[in-house]
User: What shape does this take?
Amino acid sequence: GTHVHLRLQGPDDAAPRDVELTRAVIALSSVSARLLEPGYGYVRISQFQIQTGKAFERALADLAAESEGPLQGLVLDLRNNPGGVLQASVAVADALLTDGLIVYTEGRQRGSRLRFAATGPDLLAGAPVVVLINQGSASAAEVVAGALQDHGRATVLG
Assistant: This one.
């Protein structure tokens, strides 16, 4: 809500210009979704933030409602996703798995050894999933892609 005054001058500007901006918190959603056609959804996760797991679940529910029935397939786009919060990636994988190990961490100290397992249910009830990745997919995005691939739950392309 506070204001900041800036004087801007570009290399081609004859004279500087003054602008006033009002500061605000800008909340960026890490999840966007749309129907490709009835029954088939597309979800893009740009990065894994604290609320990404819940936003992913909401997106699946919204797509099913828009499709007027359960989804028959999903494209999960993780291209150029640099990762982020590990627990958020676990929540996304858990939303598509019924059980089994999602990821574990190991280290020299006891506190660095963690195991994350799926608790279900699979919110798509086994409908096919394709995960899109590329050289820009890293960290938490790799956790999701790897867990879904390891459990035979998704086909990974990229």
Summary: The two ends are 43 Å apart (CA to CA).
